[in-house]
Amino acid sequence: xxxxxxxxxxxxxxxxxxxxxxxxxxxxxxxxxxxxxxxxxxxxxxxxxxxxxxxxxxxxxxxxxxxxxxxxxxxxxxxxxxxxxxxxxxxxxxxxxxxxxxxxxxxxxxxxxxxxxxxxxxxxxxxxxxxxxxxxxxxxxxxxxxxxxxxxxxxxxxxxxxxx
Length: 164
Prior knowledge:
Elements: E1 3-8, E2 11-16, H1 23-30, E3 49-52, E4 55-58, E5 71-73, H2 86-93, H3 103-116, H4 122-128, H5 140-154
Parallel strand pairs: 1-5
Antiparallel strand pairs: 1-2, 3-4, 3-5
Helix pairs in contact: 2-5
């Protein structure tokens, strides 16, 4: 079995992986980062979304061996020194979750989206989140949370996602 090196949430890991293992399974089963959820396992629902070299990626569709040498941020890597990321804080304040299964994917997608578009319209937020599915909410609270996080972050409450 090949060895790969991944930097996950700022920590480097050297792992032995089967060439057919998915990145989501390696994160969950070898690194015990269970915040990355497996929903549809077809890349449709977005629950398994992570940041792979700074870009959102579906970890249920990514072979772990293809991520060798990559920097990965999972939902566990959003909080820093015990402080929630502004997007996490806004999701909590706006009650933007119910069962919470889809929440990690929404959080990761939102963090990336706001890093590229710090002042989005509600329509832009809806479009950015359209690849993430939630079966519990009507999405209104989720859109409100991203809008709130955007406002908070523009006022200076930024929170850099650790990359080292």
